Amino acid sequence: MRLLIVEDDRLLGDAIQAGLTQAGFAVDWVCDGLAAENALAGQAASDYAAMVLDLGLPRRDGLTVLKGIRQRGNRLPVLILTARDTIEDRILGLDSGADDYLLKPFDMGELLARLRALIRRAEGKATPRLEVSGIVLDPAAHTVSVDGSPIDLTAKEFALLHTLMLNAGRVLSRQQLEQHLYSWNDETGSNTIEVYVHHLRRKLGRDLIRNMRGIGYLIEKD
C-alpha cells in the first residue's frame, strides 16, 4: 500500500520513510506543502491509501494543504503529525478535515497502528483481519494463513494480496495495482504484477485471483 509523507525535517522524514517501508508500505516523501499539493493533483490522489502531514511546512502550511484537498472533495485519510500540542491546535486540525492527530515525539508502532486503523475505516472494514475463501490476512502481525496454516509471503506478495483483499469484489487494473504498490523510487518491469500474481496463485491456490482479460485482477467476495 502506498503512503504520502509530508515532513520538512529531513532526519525525521528519513526515519519515518524507513520505518514505514520496513513495515511493507510504499512511501513517497515530500518536504513542503506545495510539493504535497502537486503530488495529490488529479488522478494521482487516488494512488495513496493515506497521508501523514506535518503542519509547519515551508511554501504552504499543512492546514492550507489539508483544507484545499477537502474543498476539492478528496477523501484521502490524513493523519496530522506535528509538535503543535495545544487543545486548540488539535481541534483546528481535526475540524479542518484531518482524520487523526499524533504529537511529536511519537512511537513508530503507534504511528503504524493509527495508519492501519485509518486505512481500514476508509475501506469500510470493521475488523483488522481480512478473510476471503479461508485465507486470513492480518495487517498488524503481517501474517497470512490458509485454513489455519501459515503461509510465507515476500513483502510485495503480501502488499499485493492485501490490496486485492481490501478491494474484494472489485477489478483492479495492472496500472492501478502498480500505483498502489510502488513509490516514485521503485523500479518495476512490464510484467512485475503478473509475476507476483503467479507466485500468489502457486502459494494460495490458482482459483483465488481471477484474471479478467484486458481489464485486470479480481478476488471474489465470499
Content of β-strand: 15-25%
Largest beta-sheet details: 5 strands, parallel
Mean pLDDT across every amino acid position:
92
SSE topology string:
EHEHEHEHEHEEEEHHHEE
C-alpha Rg, in Å?
Answer: 18 Å
What would the principal axes of the Cα set say about the shape?
A: globular
Q: How large is the count of helical segments?
A: 8
Distance between the termini: 23 Å
Low-confidence stretches: none
Task: Indicate the percent of residues in helices.
Answer: 25-40%
Number of strands: 11
Derived from helix and strand composition plus strand pairing, the structural class reads alpha/beta
Widest β-sheet, arrangement of strands: 2-1-3-4-5
Describe the structure.
The chain is of the alpha/beta class and 222 residues long. Helices cover 39% and strands 20% of the residues. It has eight helices and eleven strands. The protein has helices at 10-22, 33-39, 62-71, 87-95, 108-122, 155-166, 174-181, 192-204, and strands at residues 2-6, 26-30, 50-53, 78-82, 100-103, 130-132, 135-138, 143-146, 149-151, 209-212, 216-219. The strands form three sheets. Strands 2-1-3-4-5 form a five-stranded parallel sheet, sandwiched between helices. The protein is globular, with a radius of gyration of 18 Å. The model has no long low-confidence stretch (mean pLDDT 92).
